[in-house]
Write a structure and sequence with these properties.
Length: 249
């Protein structure tokens, strides 16, 4: 079985990927700040990747400040590419977001992510990119951070989403460790399209937060106003099996 390094392997999705890889018999190790790895400076990367043939990158910055996000994805992509080349990595699996290639100029996070993808494509390291829709796990967080309208409500972007369970994302990423690099990007999404307001409302209710969630055309999504369908995948997306109601239950 392969030795695999999961960059961001101690986080939400990374932990799920690690568990699946180990269950499949792979030697998996996490690379994250808590294990002594700093993607922005490159500290610890060479040791973390030594002997690994596959790298699964699910890392993200700790803040959504536009400047910090831009710096993170630029430096992380360059440092990872260099360390992977030195280690002889034969497959880089990258987790990205649906819409990254379509709306990078409007959403700072997506713009920075697209820049990091471009660095990966030009690095010479064989790769596969997985673009996922919003995770079930972040629905309540979106609501918690939503601005209020002066009443007891939460206002979110007037957009549609097709959210996906983190476990389903992890299953796809872990499965790619045993496949050849695609050299391209594929989209994955949950089975149901719904208004962002409905998604957030259901997630908040499950945590005991009874605020009303309102779709506001002027509300920002990751720092930008978006069109209603910009977060939806294309017709060729792989559809995951887990429904939001099942996950909430």
């Amino acid at each position: 079985m392969a030795r695999i390094t999961v960059v961001g392997g101690t986080g939400l999705i990374g932990g799920k990927v690690m568990a699946r890889l180990r269950s499949a018999g792979h030697e998996a190790r996490a690379a994250s700040p808590s294990t002594g790895v700093d993607l922005v400076t490159g500290e610890g990367l060479d040791d973390a990747l030594a002997g690994s043939s596959v790298v699964i990158d699910v890392s993200k910055p700790r803040t959504y400040d536009p400047d910090a996000v831009s710096r993170h994805f630029d430096r992380a992509a360059r440092n990872l590419a260099g360390a992977e080349t030195r280690a002889g990595v034969i497959h880089h699996v990258a987790l990205s977001a649906v819409g990254t290639e379509r709306v990078p100029q409007s959403i700072p996070f997506y713009r920075a992510k697209a820049h990091g993808e471009a660095i990966l494509r030009d690095s010479g390291v064989p790769f596969s990119i997985v673009r996922a829709t919003q995770f079930f796990e972040f629905g309540a967080q979106i609501g918690a951070q939503a601005r209020t309208g002066g009443t007891d409500d939460a206002r979110v972007a007037d957009a549609e989403v097709q959210p996906i369970a983190g476990d389903d994302v992890a299953a796809v990423l872990a499965g790619l460790a045993d496949e050849a690099p695609s050299g391209g990007a594929a989209e994955i999404a949950g089975p149901d399209i719904m208004p962002l307001a409905d998604f957030v409302s259901r997630c908040l209710a499950a945590t005991g937060d009874g605020r009303t969630v309102v779709a506001d055309p002027g509300a920002l999504y990751f720092g930008a106003v978006i069109e209603r369908d910009e977060l939806l995948p294309g017709d060729d997306a792989w559809i995951a099996p887990t429904r939001l109601g099942e996950w909430l239950a």
